[in-house]
Amino acid sequence: MKISTFLKLISLPLIRRRYLQASLENKIVITGEVRGGTTWLADVLSQIDNSMIIWEPMSIAGVPALKNQGFKERQFIPTENNDKELIKIFEDLYNKGKVLNLYTLNYSSISKALSAKTYIFKFTRANLSIPWMIKNLGFYKNIHILRHPCAVASSIFQRWGYDSTIDHYPAPSDKFNNLLYTKHENILKSVSNHEESIAADWCIRNMNVLDSNQHIYSVFYESLILDPIEEFTKLFNFIGYEINTKSIAAIEVPSETVLDTSPVRKKEDQVYKWKEFLNQKQIENIASICEKFSIKLYANDFH
User: Fold this and answer.
1) Cα–Cα distance list, 298 to 36, 157, 166, 202, 301 (Å)
2) What DSSP state is assigned to residue 260?
3) How far apart are alpha carbons 240 and 236 in whole angstroms?
4) Band of the pLDDT at 260, cuts 50, 70, 90?
5) Is this model's pTM higher than 0.85 or not?
6) Which residues, in sequence order, are bridge partners of residue 52?
7) Mean pLDDT of the chain
8) Pairwise CA distance, residues 47 & 43, whole Å
9) CB–CB of 175/77 below 8 Å?
10) CA atoms of 15 and 20, how far apart (whole Å)
């Protein structure tokens, strides 16, 4: 075990004790899809004085309490679910600080964790559960970041490769996620390749957030890249902070999860690079799935 890891481990009681002092006003939620800009956005917000990132606190691998409940990655929880035991588990995790462990603190230094007053929850697994969490935990500073589904697919292919063995959309085995599958079964049965599977996931997960009428500020990744000062100023106003020079500087810095070839500093390239990587058929397949789900957010930008 590294010395820094050991020091963080023995500091956990102090870190959790400090976390208990934070009110909901000092808890900011970022939710979005994988390869969708959540890490970059969290990096920018973490320039707020005395702030720290809580990394992927819905990860089954990183939060054993969720795995013990039989949760799946990107677990759907219906907003109307009133299971008292489940609510208590989440209260213990997010209100009482039990979610803080070596995994979720991996992105923050000990000094940041011990001086933190503002906590930034960075999720790529919460789009299907965040409306329920807002209802039951009271979070009200929630930022939902959307990125073009073609850009998400392109980034996934570049990072993990194209899976040519995917020829259908598998029905989930758990009760809640199966509810979503059944609701959209006719569309999901039309999925026949990797890009359509990614597009279907993108639609289902983002629809769950967009259809919620709770305290959620939705923002487009593309807008943050192309018009950063105006868009980030509005975003900071929503969470009740003034944008500072450190945050402005961080806008131009690639996150640690960005590929070496990803041109963050070339704004138009970063937004439209997917058009060079995906072929026309793949673009048409993704557009078709979005159309079937009646999602028109990027309807004019599939060419």
Assistant:
1) 15, 20, 25, 12, 5
2) T
3) 6
4) low
5) yes
6) 119
7) 92
8) 7
9) no
10) 9
